[in-house]
Amino acid sequence: MVIDNNDKPGVMLSSAVRTYVDRFGVAPGKKIAVVTNNDDAYLTTFQLVSAGIEVPVIADARPTSGDMADKAREMGIRVETDCLPHEAQGYLGVSNILLQRSDKSLIEKIACDCIAVSGGYSPNVNLVSQSGVRPVWREDILGFVPDAPIRAERSAGACNGTFDLAGCLREGYEAGRQAAKAAGVKLPRKKGAAPQAAASAPSSIVAVWRSPGKGKAFVDFQNDVTAKDIELAHREGMVSIEHSKRYTTLGMATDQGKTSNVNGLALLAKARGDDIPTVGTTRYRPPYVPVAIAAFAGHERGRHFQPTRLSAMHTVHEKLGAVFVETGLWLRPRYYPVNDRETMTRAIWREAAGVRKTAGMCDVSTLGKIEVFGPDAAEFLNRLYINGFAKLAVGRARYGLMLREDGYVYDDGTTSRLAEDHYFMTTTTANAAGVLSHMDYHSQVVWPELDVAFCSATEQWCGVAVAGPQARNVLDAAFDGAIDMSDEALPFMGVREFNWNGAQARIFRISFSGELAFEINVPWGYGKAMWECIYQAGQEFDLIPYGTEALGVMRIEKGHVAGNELDGRSTAQDMGLGRMMSSKKPFIGLPLSQREGMADEMRPRLVGLKPVNIKQRLRGGAHLVEDKNNANLETSLGWVTSVADSPAIGSWIGLGYLKNGHNRHGQRVTAVYPLKQESVEVEICNPVFYDPEGKRLHD
Question: Cα(283)–Cα(129) distance, rounded to whole angstroms?
């Protein structure tokens, strides 16, 4: 019911009060006043009394009482007929209710801490309306019911305006028979009967769309629409219910008007001087029911908030004792301790050193993978990347760098040409979905004339990297002659496809570690078998598994950029990759990459950093300054992006960005880390610390 101050805590639907008591054993109040215009609230009253809760009054808007009122009086409950709620009173919640006769004479103030309100039921016509049926008004129940069906749907029971149990059972039975017959079910000749229920006494209802009062009375509690808002909408010319709905936002909350629409329609009809059928109702749209917030949050948080992605070799890593780390949604092996006493630092050193000494294998399945097809695939990639791919030979791979439209680096990876019209692209793990979306936008919107198609293949192929001086021997033993691994057959940056145990496999001679290395891809279902095959064959050559930490150490030793350097603020020139930018073709980001500020020599450029005192450690995020005693944002010359305790170099090393850094090799600055009050004098050097000539790639 729309009454003054009906938004106070303690004003509740009568059915809600009954549910609290019946279903949950919770008393919404100690003294509950009941106001109604129909018989349903009496059921709530009887339940309250049987639970030992005081009901000081039932205010019934109907002029005469029926059997339910007589029963209440027999139980000693005060019943006032021809009585309307005038106002809910109280400061932080309900403390009183003012009651009023229909002739506007006040009865009295009743003390209570909860008001159970029953204004009648509205049949739920939302779902049937979505089939195209327009609801029609029934005055006897003061609600809309479905009109004749347009499609094969049937309405029965309460949603059809029948509220008594006997009527619901009768209509449901008949609707079921009709549906079965329409579905082709042969019904028995002897017609059955609907389940029987006690006859229900007819329930009368009287319209109470707005109780007397001049205060704030809410119609839609979710969108805070009041009775005065509807009157204002009418004065502003919003005489159509569709216009009034949008002007006031009546019925536009998650309950889709289930508790507010009929009251709102009636108030607009009164303002217009029309009846409710003339005003009509708004069109109901999906969702039929609101989505519960619990469905978004999940029954738990943590691992249940987002799906955890596991590679095909995850169970193998578990058996090897891997400690995992989250990279996006993926769980990747971080390191493999040989026993409970081995610390992470020792494990990382052992793994990185082992790869450089003999051989190691790493799960690289999480890299983003995209298959690119079509006669214009080469031209498409040419426009995506800053370097050329149109002349890349079949069977060869190339490192590529792509920019955003603003000229800053977006992502990097290798792309291989498997056929004239077929490329295989890899992206960083974190950017896989973004790169695919980036490609999709440009193929559909920017270059729709290009005949190219592509799809994500991240989950179709799982990959293993095998690196180290013994890598070729390990794979020769594992594949047992299935493919020629010689330099002549598979040169550096070469790609070959071959058959392995009945599966199509791809082998790429590319390296992220700086060692002789190969990456092998097989279909996802073969991943575990491939790992175990390589692992067993490699034991003769002291092969070890290594995780993301050792991988990170080796990539820093080789000066390879990764996520820490691809921070969205760096250009190709900043990374020392400016020479890759082709001058013979256009590509995404080219115009804005040539802005004056992007070519400024004083921009932060990628450098290597080594502590002058090799016993000191570096920290990622440290700022680079000339004077450690004058270290602040204004004097900062750059920052450290990545650090590693390098077994190959024998000290901590780091990568970072330093203003004019490419011209400052051999000079010294100080890396300050205010969080720990640390300062380390570092020498600026080439970011490639290990094997700068690249000889080990070809051994």
Answer: 7
